Amino acid sequence: MRKILVPIKRVIDYAQKIRVDPSKGAQGVQLKNVKMSMNPFCEIAVEEAIQLKEQNKGAEVVAISVGPKQCTETIRTALAMGADRGIHIETKPDVRGDYIDLQPWAIASLLKGIVEKEDAVDLVLLGKQSIDSDCGQTGPLLAGLLNAPQATFAANIERGDDGSFTVERETDTGTETIKLNASGKPAVITCDLRLNTPRYPTMPNIMKAKKKPVETISLEDMVKELGLDLDEVLTPKNEVVEVYEPPPRKEGETVGSIDELLGKLKEKGLVA
């Protein structure tokens, strides 16, 4: 294996309470003064790339992120985990990546350009979805744009000597195993929760990550280089009309017996 690309996304940390300002409509989710971190499914993709690199000496892992200046910190996290270098497509601060401005088609189009720009890419590993928009579309869209073999929701990945990948993938009824034959195009695989447990970066690796190269290119320059239209990239294919918090859950009631429980359920029409 020669090169693995891992697109990663900066999102609100999974442990944070999301704050929503209904008066701001589609821009309601508040991003200021909120802890941000790497999307958890992207962490799984980075870990899998590093494990494949450890099994195939000489392979290079490249972490890619599209977003504001702070995405460099997210890339550094991937470098501290074991990635070799990073590519940052930097957007202006007012461009939102949580499905408001940049949506999966735009991201996949940019990633296609990077895949074609890089030499000898054998594999693109992505998280199955991001926890902010939950689209799960970027990987399949990228595979479609590249006309490349793909597998989604991967629970196990094995690479064959012939360059193929055997993927056990999650389904609604269990798992299924498929083989991505070597095709001259990079395989595109999205990673599910059971694939692995991401490692914690050690302090020595965090320090080493500061010296690893990160190439930064502005979104405007990248779009121009790829021959895309900036307005088309930044114009959402779907419009977010409203963002609101779920209604608060009602407090539960304590009952003293099964008969009382059944009585309460009958009162609410939940049982006959």
Give a concise summary:
This protein has 272 residues and is α/β, with parallel strands linked by helices. Helix content is 29%, strand content 24%.
Describe this structure in words.
With 272 residues, the protein is an alpha/beta fold. 29% of the residues lie in helices and 24% in strands. The chain contains 8 helices and 11 strands. It has helices spanning 40-55, 71-81, 104-117, 138-146, 203-209, 219-226, 230-234, 258-267; strands at residues 3-7, 10-12, 36-38, 60-67, 85-90, 123-127, 150-159, 165-171, 174-180, 187-191, 214-218. Strands 9-8-7-10-6-1-4-5-11 form a 9-stranded mixed beta sheet, with helices on both faces. Helix 2 (71-81) crosses helix 5 (203-209). The longest helix has 16 residues, at 40-55.
Helix and strand arrangement:
Layout: E1 3-7, E2 10-12, E3 36-38, H1 40-55, E4 60-67, H2 71-81, E5 85-90, H3 104-117, E6 123-127, H4 138-146, E7 150-159, E8 165-171, E9 174-180, E10 187-191, H5 203-209, E11 214-218, H6 219-226, H7 230-234, H8 258-267
Count of DSSP E strands?
Answer: 11
Number of helices: 8
Distance between the termini: 62 Å
Order of the strands making up the biggest sheet = 9-8-7-10-6-1-4-5-11
Question: Main beta sheet, described?
Answer: 9 strands, mixed
Low-confidence stretches: none
Give the mean pLDDT.
Answer: 92
Supply Rg: 21 Å
Chain oligomer state? single chain
